[in-house]
Amino acid sequence: MNAWRLSLISGFLLVTILTIWALASTLGEVEADIGARVDSQLSLDGQPWASAKIRGRTVIVMGTSPTLISQRLAVESAERVWGVGRVVDGSGVIPLQSPYTWSATRAGDQVEISGFVPSEEARLAVMASADREMPTLNLEDKLVLSRGQPIGFLVLTDFALKRLAELENGSVSLTGSGLTIDGTAVDEARFASAARAISASIPAGGQLRNVRVLPPLKKAFTWTLVYDGKSVEQKGYVPSVAVRRDIADALAVALPGVPMIDATQLASGGPEGFSFAAVFAAYQLARLDTGSISINESLLSIEGKAKTVPDYEMALAEIEARRSKRAVGVGIGSVDLLPARVDPYVWRADRAGTSVVMTGYVPSVEAHDEVLSAAARLFPDLTVLDHVRVADGDPKMDWIGALKYALEQLSWLSKGSVALTGRQYDIVGEAVSTSAYSNLTEALKKTLPASMELRRSAVSPGAVSPFVFAAARVPDGLTLSGYVPTDEVVQKIIAAARPKFGPDRIELRLLLAGGAPDGFVEAVDVALQAVSRLQGGRFDLVDTKLSLFGVAVSEGAKADIEATVRANLPEDFELTPSLTVAVGGDPLSAADCQVALRTESVREKVQFDGATARILPSSFGLLDRIAAIVQRCPVATVEIGAHTDSSGGTRRNQALSVERAQSVVNHLVSDGVRRERLSPVGYGGSRPIASNSKAAGRAQNRRIEFGIVGQ
């Protein structure tokens, strides 16, 4: 019985295991079948991003959807499959990006594509388009999946990649549907192709945001006009179609009816200011019988034969005017103009940097070699660029001796030029040192050799460092010492000092030297104004550092002086003040006080700004001295009497005199004088001291008088 039971139980277990195995095998086949049919349906419904994960008859939709709609449609596709019991959405959605950006950048043989794409399919399409347009380049994919793309995204990226393929270096980018293109074209054909594509409408509703496509880059950017007297040939490179048209228009005006052969190519890499220089060159052809004009990188060079002597002179004048203006980008290089007969007969040598450039004329080949040898001897460490031509017409003088003398003087300049126009000699530049400047100055004072006549001398001294200048008040005078850059600056400083210091003697102990900082004259003017208000005042200016010393009449005056200097000093100048406050001298009696006041007002007048009551700063020093005198008369009351001339009408003059008297009172109060000790009175034109019929008399009548009116 027990054996039967054991046999029955064993059989039951075996049947159960076989049943479970059969069911599991069947379930696996069902799940595999459902999964295959769901995946097929998803693909047929255009949702290849999604895949099915099966648990029994439950389908879990997996993957990353490009949109919320696609996510919902994938679930619906799975639900329509026969045999599916339930559908669970386990998918995700790629993130939404705003703004939606995309870019491709080309540098050499590398292309980097970055930004956003809406799906893996779109990524593949973009990279395929890039590979099709630029098959020989290395492509780097840095794209990120994201939603929010504009309508027609793939059409726009395809258009942009076509434009990138036309660039040697550059980038294309999309922000929404806005397209930006920036770069340099591979060649002129692709530059034209890009221009045509950009000028047409952008596909898929795209809009151009920024476009900067340059012609192909040429490192050796050259351009030449050649005129043989019958036609003009233009060769080399131009930066744009517009510039090419401007040159053609200029040639049509300069040489009307003369055929023009244009063999130029479009290219970028030209110097700044090329178009202006090229148009200038085109107009110069009108003055040439034959010749050529070229721009090589940043230098414009002219060679040829002038039609007439006036054309030769005008061409030189215009070239020199352009040289003196220091036109941006393209400067003047070699100038080799040969007239039919040279008159005036000219020669010039320019020294700048590491080179000496000689242009002009000599009467023979032997003379040319002699001048070149002299230049090589005088400038052994410099490059001598020889553009001297042999021509007829030299003046009846020792022309070669004159050129050698001029070259010797050029060797004393760190930069500059020497030139001869017939017998007339010009020298311009900066001396290599103070001693060289002295030698040049002394030499130019003497009779020049070879019958030369000095026409122009504009040589500045060598630079010194530090550049120092000082001014100091002495009894009845002002001493100026240190360095100044030119005699003209000396005159400007004296002109600035004279109204501030009245009849004071100005003693000059100045040396000429280069190296003055920018704003030097303005800084000296500001410092002189401060010294004019200080007893025992002086200043030292070392490059841009100003040290100011002296005694102010009051704390208010001291503060005002320092504030005015700081406010008016040029940029980069620094002030170090060392000012004190004191009123010197013993107390004065009323009579002595009156004498002192009269002495100051007779010696110097209070000046106003035109027909106003604003006191000119040049009179602040006088009023500070008046304030010092009044403070030494501690019990006196001072009348401030303002007088005008007869111009302007009686009422207006009366009101103006009252305003001026009050302005003087206000200044004295700011200098520390108590207001109750001052009595402003406006007399208008009622008390003239000279005839108003003449300007000199009217000037005397316009005055401020200071009088003691009480104790």
From TrEMBL:
Residue intervals of the OmpA-like domain: 595-711
Any Pfam family matching the protein: OmpA
Subcellular location(s) of the protein: Cell outer membrane
InterPro entries hit by this protein: Bact_OuterMem_StrucFunc (IPR050330), OMP_bac (IPR006664), OmpA-like (IPR006665), OmpA-like_sf (IPR036737)
Keyword Disulfide bond: no
Keyword Membrane found: yes
UniProt keyword annotations, A-Z: Cell outer membrane, Membrane
Origin: domain of life: Bacteria
Protein name: OmpA family protein
Taxonomic source organism: Kaistia terrae
